[in-house]
Each structure stands twice: as C-alpha cells, then as structure tokens.
Specification:
The complex is a heterodimer of chains A (265) and B (82).
Chain A (H helix, E strand, L loop, with lengths): L10 E7 L5 H9 L4 H8 L4 H22 L9 E2 L5 E2 L7 E7 L2 E7 L5 E5 L8 H8 L2 H8 L6 H19 L3 H7 E6 L2 E7 L9 E6 L6 E6 L6 E7 L1 H8 L6 E4 L1 H8 L1
Parallel strand pairs in A: 1-11
Antiparallel strand pairs in A: 1-5, 2-3, 4-5, 6-10, 7-8, 9-10, 11-12
Helix pairs in contact in A: 1-3, 1-8, 2-3
Chain B lengths: L1 H11 L22 H15 L16 H16 L1
Helix pairs in contact in B: 1-2
Classes of the chains: A alpha+beta (265), B mainly alpha (82).
Amino acid sequence: MGDHVSHPGTIGLTLARFTPHERPQWLARSAALLNAAELGRVAAITDPDARARHAVGRALVRLIGAQAAGCGPMELEVAVTDTGKPWLPELPDLHVNVAHTLRAVIVATASVAAIGVDIEHPAAATVQPLRVAQRLFASDEVSALHELPEDRLADWFTSVWTIKEAVAKALGSGIIPALSEVVVDSGDAGLTLAAVGSGPPAESWTLHQLVAPGGSEKIAVAVPVPGVKLAQVTVLTLSGFARAASGQGATERTWSRSARRRASR
Amino acid sequence: MEDKIRDIIGSHARLTVSAISLPEDADLYAAGMSSQASVSIMVALEDEFGLEFPDRMLKRSVFQSIASIRAALCEIQSTAAV
C-alpha cells in the first residue's frame, strides 16, 4: 500500500478507480473491512456508484492507517468529524482525507499538517461554470474565465474547483464559503493560490495539481505548510486492492512524472 | 415551487434517478449529488426565483433534499416580504 509510512515528510496519494462491472466486487471487498457504523452509512447511500466509492474510501483509510499502525484494518480506530470525515485518533501524525468523483476514489495522507484533497472529473462539472464563477468566485478569477475559449471553460473550472475544495478540506471549512475566500491566480506559472481567506497565508501552503493516472480526473491536494513533496501516486487495481484487503500486500503501479506534465499543460 | 425545484435538480444534480420521482425528503447526496452539483443547483435556484441565499444558508444541509431547499426558499421569500 504505497509509501505513506516510509516517507513521513511527503504527501501520499492512493487512487482507486472501478468500472461498473467491477463495482460489486470493490463494494464487497471494502465492506468486509468496515464496522457496523460504517456499513450503516454505506447502506444509506442510494446511488450505486456513490455507495461503492464511499465504501472504498473508508476501506482505503483503514488499510492505510493499519499499515502505519502495524495492526489489522479492522482493529484500527477510525473516528468521524461532525461533517462525517474520517480521522485516526491512534495516529495523530497521520492526517488523511478522502475525495471521490464518478467511479474514482482518492485518499491523501500527510504527517506535517491536516491535508485536503479533491478529485473531479471534467465530465461531472457544473453545466454553468461561468454563472457559478460569477456568483461565487473572485473578480480576477471571473476575468480569467472570460478570456478562455469555450472549449476550455469546463477544464479550467474543474481545476480551480479542485484547488478551492482541497484547501477548504484542509482547513475543515465549508466548500461554499471557500469558493469565495480561496482565490486562485491563473498566471504564467499555471494555477497558484493567491488568497486563502481566514486560513494561513497563501504563500505558506503547498499545493499540488495532477491528472489522475489512467484517466482524466483533475486532482488537487493542499497542506498549510510550504515545500511538502508529493510522493509517487499509488494506483490500486481490483486485484491489488483484494490482496491488500486480505493482508497479502498490494500489487500497485506508481506514477507521477507523466501525469504532472499533463496537468501542467 | 416544488416542480421548479425538481426541474432544477433534474438539470443540475446529475443523478441517475429521475428528480420527478424523488421523495421530497430523499437525501440528494445519498442519491449521488456532488458538492459541485449542489452549488450549481444553488445558483440555478437563485436565478429561477430571483433571490439570493444569505451566507448563513450556504451550507450542505440546506441543499440536502427537496424539502430542505423548499424550506430555505420559503424562508428567504418570507423575510423579503416583510
């Protein structure tokens, strides 16, 4: 399961993506790792993809936490915040955050500070990016959006959204206020943080943006500490996940450089 | 009002089930609505009803169901009518 433990100073990302055909197996393998309360939350989700990705996210948190704690995934204590986000009381130096879109789930980890991650598929972007930006984004962001050709609107909006949501999740704040308070600059250096509202100043954050390996989802991950490196992304296949879930270790593909190049274009 | 709310949910929430058949207290997030879709719905509601959600209503629970959305809209409209 990746290298979350061996490189405590870095950000770890673990990605799982399932097809509709694989969905029942991902759900079943994940459910086998969850406790009764977690299973209750899974059962309350009526959409099949949403149910599976929630279960997979919680299962990944257990697997990653268990690896760090040196225990079995079912033995790990996983608490949830008032807003339903998981955290690990036994591992105060392992911050986790989960995000999902369509049929992809990502878990981010960091030891240095609370971490936020978001993943969004451009195909799932709002049907009215310009209108949402006009209502909630900063004027400079709306100006940048106006300068884009129409076929790039969804892509830009998705990237900017992931940054704002990742920062909001690191701060533990609501996403809608963060859409206004977190400001993204679209300069020559790509998308960078310009302001973070009531949080630590923009220059003190580490922000990484990438495209999900093997897909087109945009990912942003943020921590309120400068200079934190991104470790290789761990991509779990169904068979690798099944092996990890059964305690036999995962077969994984790691990836970083090629997708970072794609993300920076 | 409820028909318009359902129309907007159908256009913006990207659910796999029909917004017309959703129970009014059904959890839209459990039905697959993303945070981005909820914001899209919020803006579409503002445009449709000619109002603006105050900051205190810009939270997840307000957009959780048809019933919660309708309650918020009614509250905004009644406040504006005073």
